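[scheduler] slot 2 assigned
[scheduler] job type: sequence-to-structure, two independent chains
[scheduler] chain ordering preserved from manifest
[runner] begin chain α
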Amino acid sequence: MRKMSGGQAAVAALQVEDVGHVFGLIGSATMEIFDALYDASDIEFIGVHDERTGTHMADGYARASGRAGVILAGQNGPGATNLVTGLAQARAAFSPVVSIAGMLSTEHVYRDAFQEVDQQALFGPVTKKTWTVTRTDRVPEMFREAFRTALAPRRGPVQLNLPRDVLSEVREFDELQRPAQYRNYAASPAPDAAIEEAAKLLRGAQRPVIVAGGGIKNSGGHEDALALAEALNAPVVLAPGHGDAIPHGHRLNAGQMGPRGNVVASRLAKEADVILALGTRLGFNSTFYSYDNINRDADIIQVELEPTAIGRYFPVRLGIWADARAAARLLVEALAKLDANAAVEAWTRAYVDERESYLARRDAEADTRAQPIQPSGLYRELRAVMPRDAMITMDAGTLCLQATDALEYHQPPGLFTPLDFGLVGFSFACGLGVKLACPERPVVSLMGDGGFGMTLSELSTAVDHGIDTVTLVMNNQCWGAEKAYQRDFFGERYIGANVSSPPFDKVAELYGAAGYRVERLGEVGDAVRAALDCGKPAVIDIQVDPAALYSFRRDSFRHRGG
């Protein structure tokens, strides 16, 4: 037996879970936890400037490491409400974030107390599950349940609310239990009959395509997906935001599909006669829920860990409720003796030629001469200078949406986006978490000037903790996506579209980071190399043409013409 306060028990529970980093912002509601963290030499506390950005750090850490990321909001009320946006983003990405927030004392609930808000109700819609701990002796149990739930398929964020009196009370505790092996849940195997039926459909295909999504990426299943693609001799198109599901450069990697993808991958999805949707919902970013982006007549085999996702947006010929990686492995075995098919050979040969031509044309047509810098030229320079093992984080917004398929991801995991929630202000903070999870790999964060302006205070977090990421601010002095819509559909009636910012390279230097300014395309390579080698957090302020805008969501404004 061991006497501990609730706050000490909370930290002991984190130690039992082998938590190495806790992101958070100090507050009086959780002082017992912070005091216990002072003695926890095995946990590094990463103090942040905003609970939202701290949640993005925990999210990036979770996605990159495969372990739970932990965020601690020290204050109830406003400290807790600041978590909501970050948790909504984590939920959309199925990211296992364990969020902890202080809460007012139990005796003050429902009395309109200082900083009172119904945190149980607040977090319900944006988490996988939310608990309010009512007894000190249950703190370890609730932490164990939180980690188990966050990491169980399908993964997602959870919220623990800890009242002040629960944290301050001292109780005797039995030795804390080591967690069950929920970090390594056995993958759901697909039934033999379903695998055989899928193999039969794939054997009969003449224009097969694999669509690989988060189920492959998040399980580290790229080798199994590629083995299946090679067995079928079928091209692989990638769900948007999962361009790193398989390594770039493999001849069967067609890149990202759909309205946010490239023309080659998109054509494959629109012409395939059998589509194997491997760990993807075939959702909004891939299809806009429209047969404009997927062949209406194709036989769809959908493998999904979430049963409600199967056939939700498009009728399927065969639905398989299983882990995508495990199903891919079983399909490779089932197709081991697949005979060569002349129609498939011709289909894939034509695709390979088209893909090679597309990549060559993309480089040749990139605008490398215009001043100010054009996005196509910038992406070409970044493709040339980016390390092959780089982990790249993105923001939402027009420039980053164009960059998702324009850049190359050679070593999975290599791409971290807010695409399912469309969040601006995500990339830099996410990159800090990714770097702490994988310190041996370079981390490069792309974002616009608006998004970086939201989060630049975390430069001091990066400097204080030596988190050496490189942030590329594509500075076009506007909210690009919205300004494009005002230009294309609202008669150039601009309001709220322009952004004024300080020179971000100078701001970075004031924080103690390295700063670089790029005004000409020829300066990009040297700046990126210098930033990667400088040994400290770095920001590169890249002046991009404010007129180089693109309307992605043209479907939203069909009623306005144009």
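[runner] end chain α
[runner] begin chain β
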Amino acid sequence: MKRLREALAKREFAVTCEMVPGRGKEGVTFDAALQFAEETSASDVAVHAVSLTDNPGGNPAIMPDGLAREIMNQGLDVLVHFSCRDLNRNAFESRAMALARCGVDNLLVITGDYPSGGFEGTAAPVFDLDAVHGIRYLKAMNAGLEIPGRHKGTVQRLPPTDFVVGAVVSPFKLKEEEYLPQLFKLEKKLAAGADFVVPQLGYDMRKFLELKRYLNARGLNVPLLGNVYVLSRGVARAMHAGQVPGCVVTRELLAEVERAAEAGDKGKKHNLERAAKMVAAFKGMGFSGVHIGGFGLRSDDVRYIVGRAGELAPEWHKVARDIEFGREGEYYLFPPQDGYEIPAREADPLPGLGRARMPVAYRFSDWFHRHVFEPDCMLFRPLRACYRRLGKNSLAGKFSHFVEFATKALLFECRDCGDCALPDMANCCPQSACAKQQRNGACGGSIDGMCEVFPDERKCVWTVVYKRLKSAGRLAEMRERYVPPRRTDLAHTSSWANYFLGRDHAGMAAQRVHPG
């Protein structure tokens, strides 16, 4: 039972349908998911996998793993969402191996929404790994994860897994500095080994088209599944209010849904028609499939959507224009394309973005880093020798660490993590400036450039990183540089010492340039 895997490999038009398990061990949401599976398995509806979410909205909910087995027992394939929010890297591996043991091998790796509830108070976020790390980890498991052997200096290889790993991208961002980091992080996910991509939800086909064009321009021939959600009035209102991170419903779309809801069927037929138009447009644009969701989604709804999309296929260019709910001031990377045609050849758009004015503070800190910390600068070897000597004098070492931390706390709000990522993020600290402590790019939950967790008071730090790197003409670094997970064993130690002595991720890289 490898329906999704086979469809992606053969480039058939894959259909996945999303179910949202609720809190507890039974109830309406569980019954709906199992009923959907039962109806689908007994019908001719071509569903390649039932997709199960992982605590959407950050609320407590049952882990989808057990429900996945029940659905598989009914003869359907499953796609389990795998969030990085609640698991440290050891728990991440444990859950992945347990799923592999149960035969669940389709995983959609996501950062995860910030926790918003819990027993006797809000749960603590983990975010030990980001989605890029998670994809790399799962691919390492597929290759046979190497771990320390029983005897010192030996290596043991675990039995390989066979995961098909999906990635997510959120293209529905208003401004350039919020939109482009999403595309750059997607490239890192693909470099990490992602097998397919599901975009976040939105209702502007131009943005979906841009995603396809961007991947073509970068020579990334990866299966891309369009996201389709059958709106209801309640869900549309919640998305419009920003209550579902990353999902965009504009004022105009909400008004359309509200008008349709006055009908006797509460707008269901109208909303199913919109979904069918989107499926037809995705197929016309060359997407590899669709990911269909909706509150109370039934097997008959999917049959109607897919069937109606087939009827609309000859005029997909026209119906695509019916789903253009962009916002005022919306940034588009590519110029409009008549008829939604994708050019046979597409140039990389990055060189054409130009440069911006470099902030004075960033200019100075960047200059300081290049002349003090880069392995090819004059001070690198003397400072490495100095920190070796400091290591032998605990009092001097502690004083040096105090001065370093005080300086960095004042300038960068340093949290003394010991594995500094300031050089990787244009001198922005992920520990203090990012609620999810992301080191490889922005999560998908920002709202008009503001942090998902603190939308009224804090910009998404990756918009700042973008502007700084653009001003320096170094945007290519943002989509190419991989930053490993934080070395938590280095917390509250000198990051400068760790760097010069080759202990942290940047220091290890520097040691390869100047060993010894």
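[runner] end chain β
[qc] chain β: Strands lie at 14-19, 49-52, 78-83, 106-110, 146-148, 155-157, 164-169, 196-199, 225-230, 289-294.
[scheduler] slot 2 released
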